[in-house]
Design brief:
Elements: E1 2-8, H1 14-25, E2 36-43, E3 50-58, E4 61-69, H2 72-95
Parallel strand pairs: 1-2
Antiparallel strand pairs: 2-3, 3-4
Helix pairs in contact: 1-2
Length: 96
């Protein structure tokens, strides 16, 4: 699985990158043939001003989840939780 991380209009620190890599790497358990994962961090102008968009490329399709939160870590956690459910459903459909 290839991981691409992009931070828009700011420089992500090493802690955030390490945290994201740790969380995203667990997705392999839920759907085996993940080709790549693209993570985009951006800042918004509203109160929950941190935006995370994760695009998971799997053979034949892709799954995109986007969340806003007060911290990037919270948004990453929410995205990964939703992706776990979506990838598990995709795997079950594939095996039926």
């Amino acid at each position: 699985m290839k991981l691409n991380v992009q931070s828009i209009k700011f420089d992500a620190d090493a802690k955030l990158l390490e945290f994201t890599e740790k969380k995203v790497s667990k997705l392999d358990r839920f759907f085996e043939p993940i080709i790549s994962v693209d993570v985009k961090f951006s800042l918004l102008s509203d109160a929950a001003n941190k935006n995370v968009r994760i695009n998971v490329a799997v053979p034949g399709s892709s799954v995109v989840v986007e969340r806003n939160a007060a911290s990037f870590e919270t948004a990453v956690n929410e995205c990964v939780d939703i992706l776990k459910e979506k990838l598990t459903r995709m795997k079950e459909k594939r095996n039926d």
